[in-house]
Write a structure and sequence with these properties.
8% of the residues lie in helices and 35% in strands. By secondary structure, it is mostly beta strands.
């Protein structure tokens, strides 16, 4: 008998390191709706339970995940117009110095005033950013570009908000605060090629049942004369795109606060944190050094409260 969910099918290996975000929060508040970080590792915190559970008001221990936030800079603005089916790119405006540094060779001279004059004909405005991973301890030198959606009541308010950050560094404080909820998208741990027992959790055959033990008992009925996709097969396992919603942000810290979260000896397979960071309640998919994409929670209905942290474990996990 097979086990496991068929919610994700087929189990394809992720093509890109940066997960794609298709849906963002629809809000009139002018703010950044997305960000990125790198998974450092896990520890645990003791905090006051502020939920409606029977443990409300008491100290509870929570497993938390620490993400290191690289330096993120805004190098451009992207404008969208109404397309035949969906929105289409109408044009982009760059900060010349940063755009050349991130590898954009052909820069069209699109004047920002031209887009301002036809702002009512546009349907969306987003920010173009890149992360500088060179300052991270694990030595990544790749400059990765990505798009940050922006919330606002109209395109004019979004444009004026992005203009204030164009050519400058964007901090994690500009995206999220303590106690808020986010959705995370990442790539799960890769397990390589796996058999049906590890991949789907089927039971082993009895010793005298067949000549094999670690295989499925049947591939299906005679008719229809084909093997259905629901039948367990060996194949690729892990390294898939996964999104988890409504993850609570316990703490947002700056570069100066890194020592308050660094564990003894550094995080396993990662090392110490030297930049901005955030602490998320619970675990998230992926291994250490994995790129994590963040967005403001789309389906959250929980009231935002400031977490009361009593103790943070800094003991070595090695």
């Amino acid at each position: 008998m097979r086990k496991g969910s068929l919610e994700y099918w087929p189990h394809r290996r992720a093509k890109k390191l940066l997960p794609r975000v298709r849906t963002v929060l629809n809000t009139t508040e002018t703010s950044f709706l997305g960000f990125v970080g790198f998974k450092a590792g896990m520890t645990h915190m003791i905090m006051i339970d502020d939920s409606e559970s029977p443990a409300k008001g008491t100290e509870v221990s929570r497993a938390v995940t620490v993400l290191e936030i690289p330096k993120v800079y805004l190098y451009g603005i992207r404008f969208y117009k109404k397309g035949y089916i969906y929105k289409e790119i109408a044009g982009e405006v760059y900060d010349q110095k940063l755009a050349i540094s991130v590898g954009i060779k052909t820069i069209k001279k699109n004047d920002l005033s031209n887009f301002k004059s036809k702002i009512n004909d546009l349907v969306d405005v987003t920010a173009l950013a890149y992360l500088d991973a060179g300052a991270l301890n694990f030595g990544s030198k790749r400059v990765m570009r990505f798009e940050i959606p922006v919330g606002g009541k109209d395109c004019a308010s979004k444009l004026s908000f992005i203009e204030g950050f164009l050519g400058k560094e964007v901090k994690i404080n500009n995206f999220i605060k303590n106690g808020e909820y986010i959705d995370i998208s990442s790539i799960s741990k890769g397990k390589g090629w796996a058999g049906v027992i590890k991949r789907f959790g089927v039971s082993r055959q009895y010793r005298k049942a067949t000549g094999k033990v670690r295989h499925v008992g049947t591939l299906g009925a005679w008719h229809p004369p084909k093997v259905l996709y629901t039948v367990p097969h060996s194949g690729h396992k892990g390294y898939n795109y996964r999104t988890e919603i409504n993850k609570r942000v316990i703490k947002v810290g700056g570069e100066k606060d890194a020592q308050s979260i660094n564990i003894k000896g550094g995080f396993t397979n990662y090392g110490p944190i030297a930049n901005d960071f955030i602490v998320i309640d619970g675990s998230i998919p992926g291994s250490a050094k994995r790129l994590i994409r963040l967005r403001k929670a789309v389906r959250n209905t929980t009231k935002v409260k400031e977490p009361q942290v009593v103790y943070t474990s800094l003991e070595s996990k090695q």
